[in-house]
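re: ur question from yesterday

yeah so i grabbed the chain u mentioned. its 408 aa long if i counted rite. heres the sequnce exactly as i have it in my notes:
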Amino acid sequence: MINIGNTGFMLICASLVMLMTPGLAFFYGGLVGRKNVLTIMIQSFMSLGWTTVLWVVFGYSMCFGPDWHGLIGNPATYFMLRGVTLHTMFLGNDAGIPLVVHIAYQMMFAIITPALITGAFANRITFKAYFLFLTGWLIFVYFPFVHMLWSPNGMLAKWGAEDFAGGLVVHASAGFAALASVLFIGRRYVIENKPHNVPLIALGTGLLWFGWYGFNAGSELRVDAVTASAFLNTDIAASFAAITWLLVEWARGRQPKFVGLLTGAVAGLATITPAAGYVSPVTAIVIGILSGYICYYAVALKNRLQWDDALDVWGVHGVGGFLGITLLGIFGSHLWNPAGADGLAYGGTRFFFVQVAAAVICSAWAFVFTYGFLWLISKVTVTKVDRDAEETGLDITLHGEEAYPVGL
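ran it thru and got these C-alpha cells back, copy pasting raw so excuse formatting
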C-alpha cells in the first residue's frame, strides 16, 4: 500500500537532487574563464539528458536488477522499465513508495556523478570524447558500484560496507576518476585559474547545498528520525568545513576568500555524505572540521605536484569522499542508526577495515578504468583540443556559441 507521506517526500528529494546538476553547472561555470563557460555547463546538462536515457534503457536494471556474482544486476530485467506499472512497489524497505519513485530518485544520483568529473578536465577535452567517456564510465564504474554497495546482494554490501548517500559511489569514484583524467589528458596549454564570475559560483554552491538535503536526508528513503539527523548533519558538516577552509586559507594568505568559503562548504558536503545517517551531530562537527582542513591541504598538494585538476575535483570530492567513508568506519554508531554499524571508536574494528577496503577498491577501479578508457577513446577520436582552440575558447571552437557576446 502506498504511503502518501513517504512518497511525497521522496518526490521532493528527487527534485532537489535533480537541481544539484544545474547548480554544479553554475558552480563550475563561474570557476572557469569567460571563453569556456558554456562548454563546462553543457557537459553537466548533457549528463542530465544522456544519463536519463541510459538509466531508463538498462541503467536502473544494472544497478538494482537480479544479482550476478555480487558485481552487477541483470540489464534485461528492467530493460526500458519493462514490467514496471503504477502498482509496482519498491521492495527495498517497508516505506510504501512506488518503484517509479525509487527509479526517479536514484536516477538523479547517476546524473550528477559523472558531471562532477568534468571540472578536472575543464577547458581541454573535446565534446565527442566527453560523450564517449560519459557513456562508458556510467556502464563500467558507476552502475557496478551502485549494485555492489546499494543492492542487498552486492559484494560490498555483503561484506558489511556502508555508504549512506554516496561518499564512495558518487564522490570518491568521481574524484579518483578525475585524477586519472588529469594525468592522462595532461595540462592545459593556456592556464587560467582565476574565476571569471564569483557570484555565479555562489549561486551554484547555494543550489548544491540546498539540493544536498534531498541527496542525504532522502537516502533514508522514508521520513523518520534518521532522516532528520541526516538533514541536520548535512548542514553542520558543510558549515564547519566552510569556516575551517576559510580560516586556514586566511591564516596562510592573510585574506578571507569567498571562493575558499564556498569550496570548503562543498568539501564538507561531500565528506559527510557517506556518514550523514549513521553518526551524531557532534560527530558531524568533527567531520566538517577535518574535511575543511584535509581537503584544503589536498588541493595545496595538487598544486605543489602541478596536477592540472582545473576545478579541484580530486581534492574536494575524491579526498572528501574517501575521508568520509573512513571516518564513518571510525565514528559510525548504532545509537544514531540501528540499521548501521559501530565504528572503530565503539569497538567495530572489522567494520573499519571493511570501510577502508571498500574505499580503496572503488577509488582504485575508478582510477584504473578511467585512465584505460580515455586511452581507448584517444585511439578512436581526439580527446584534447589544440592550443589554438584553448586560446580562442572552447565555447566558440566546439559549440559556436558565446556566454558573453561582444557588443551585447
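noticed a couple things. Residues 349-380 form the longest helix (32 residues). also The first strand starts at residue 67 and ends at 68.
anyway ttyl
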